[in-house]
Every structure is written in structure tokens, then in C-alpha cells.
Amino acid sequence: MMNENNVNSKVDTHHDHNELDLRGTMASVLFLGGVFVVTWFAIFILFLERV
Length: 51
Hints:
Helix content: 55-70%
Distance between the termini: 74 Å
Number of strands: 0
Mean pLDDT: 85
Shape: rod-shaped
Radius of gyration: 24 Å
Structural class: mainly alpha
């Protein structure tokens, strides 16, 4: 049988999406994407030189 105190003591952990600060996430994604693009072009240029 469940104790009523356990049911009432749950903390609401729902966060509003408008309050989240995702600037660091956006910067990390852009940085990683830039690394991928630069790496791809470097390997492509290396491939063209060896053909």
C-alpha cells in the first residue's frame, strides 16, 4: 500500500522551454560542424592532389 506522504512529496521538475539558455549548445554545435566541414574539405583536397 502506498504512503500518502510519498505521493504528495514529489517535486515538479518540469521546466519551461522558453527559460532555457541554449547559447552554449548552439556554439558547440556550430564549432563541431565547422570542424567537420574543414576536415572534409582537407581530405577532399588531399584526394584531388593524389588522383
